[in-house]
């Protein structure tokens, strides 16, 4: 596995644990379709369907992770989420788009900043 892919997978696993610890149910990981990929899809304790984009950084040399989720990326995520919703057999619940910023800090555990409703 490529180092960047392994690092991304670690960030997604860390984010999934964070969500599960807060009562979320992770419904999908790395869900792919012709438009792209959804890193995580989770249902909040309140029943909101959360599409979570995970961005991992070793430092701030490339800027804040959330800055990588620009307008183009947001549009791609909206299209991908729409296809995911179209495949549900139930009435789609309320949805939101979140961003999880995962930071490496030396040899310690990964630090997570979770942004609910990061974009619409």
Kindly describe this structure.
With 120 residues, this protein is α+β, with helices and mostly antiparallel strands. It has helices at 3-21, 71-86, and strands spanning 25-33, 36-43, 49-57, 95-103, 111-119. It has a 5-stranded mixed sheet with strand order 1-2-3-4-5, with helices on both faces. A hairpin with a 2-residue loop joins strand 1 and strand 2. It is globular, with a radius of gyration of 14 Å. The relative contact order is 0.19. The mean pLDDT is 91.
> How do the strands of the widest beta sheet line up side by side?
1-2-3-4-5
Strand content: 35-45%
How many strand units? 5
Which structural class should the secondary elements be placed in? Answer: alpha+beta
Uncertain residue segments = none
Overall mean confidence score, pLDDT: 91
For the structure shown, list the relevant keywords.
single chain, 120 residues, alpha+beta, five-stranded mixed beta sheet, 2 helices, globular
Short synopsis of the structure:
The protein is of the alpha+beta class. It has helices at residues 3-21, 71-86; strands at residues 25-33, 36-43, 49-57, 95-103, 111-119.
How are the SSEs placed, and which strands pair?
Layout: H1 3-21, E1 25-33, E2 36-43, E3 49-57, H2 71-86, E4 95-103, E5 111-119
Parallel strand pairs: 3-4
Antiparallel strand pairs: 1-2, 2-3, 4-5
